[in-house]
Amino acid sequence: MIRLEVVDPGNWRLGLKVSESQKHFVSDDMRLLARAYAYRESRSNAYVIYDEDVPVGMALYYDCDERKAFDFSQIFIDERYQGKGFGTEAARQILKIMESDGKYDKVILCYIDGNEAAKNMYEKLGFCLTGECDEDEIIMEKVLR
């Protein structure tokens, strides 16, 4: 059973990481937390993803006022727990949180060109390519509601 907990002083040092081959595509937990801090004025929301009581990953989103959208900045599942659907279920829960928030009616995100696993998951969740790129990052969006 996947559940989310807001990152707090008691759960931020979990040592979660992706495999060496994925490091080009996904930031580690410390970079996620640094980004959450950097975007704190944009209502950043960092979560630890749990399977029951076992921490299996992390995720982050924040407001992107200039695009009038939530920016689903990052999600990752620790290398030990991948391939079990945890990332997809956690992303669904986060999208519901965004929808309940109601500030925006769309979500943007980007993935690194070549990360087919991320692209496939995002498409499965209803994200579509925008045709925009930012260097090697491909931008997708999803309309909420």
Describe this structure in words.
This protein is an alpha+beta fold. The protein has a single domain (2-143), classed as Aminopeptidase (3-Layer(aba) Sandwich). Helix content is 24%, strand content 37%. It has three helices and seven strands. It has helices spanning 29-38, 86-101, 116-124, and strands at residues 2-6, 45-51, 54-64, 69-77, 106-112, 128-134, 137-143. A seven-stranded mixed sheet has the order 1-2-3-4-5-7-6, with helices on both faces. The chain is globular and about 35 Å long. The two termini are 25 Å apart. The relative contact order is 0.16. The mean pLDDT is 95.
Largest sheet: 7 strands, mixed
* CATH class descriptor: Alpha Beta
* General shape: globular
DSSP helical segment count: 3
Q: Give start-end ranges of low-pLDDT stretches.
A: none
Mean pLDDT: 95
Q: What name goes with the CATH superfamily?
A: Gcn5-related N-acetyltransferase (GNAT)
Strand order of the largest sheet: 1-2-3-4-5-7-6
Structural class: alpha+beta
- Total strand count, please? 7
Share in β-strands: 35-45%
What's the order of the H and E elements?
Answer: EHEEEHEHEE
The CATH architecture is 3-Layer(aba) Sandwich
Q: CA-to-CA gap between the ends?
A: 25 Å
Provide the helix percentage.
10-25%
CATH topological fold name: Aminopeptidase
Features of the shown structure:
alpha+beta, seven-stranded mixed beta sheet, Aminopeptidase, 145 residues
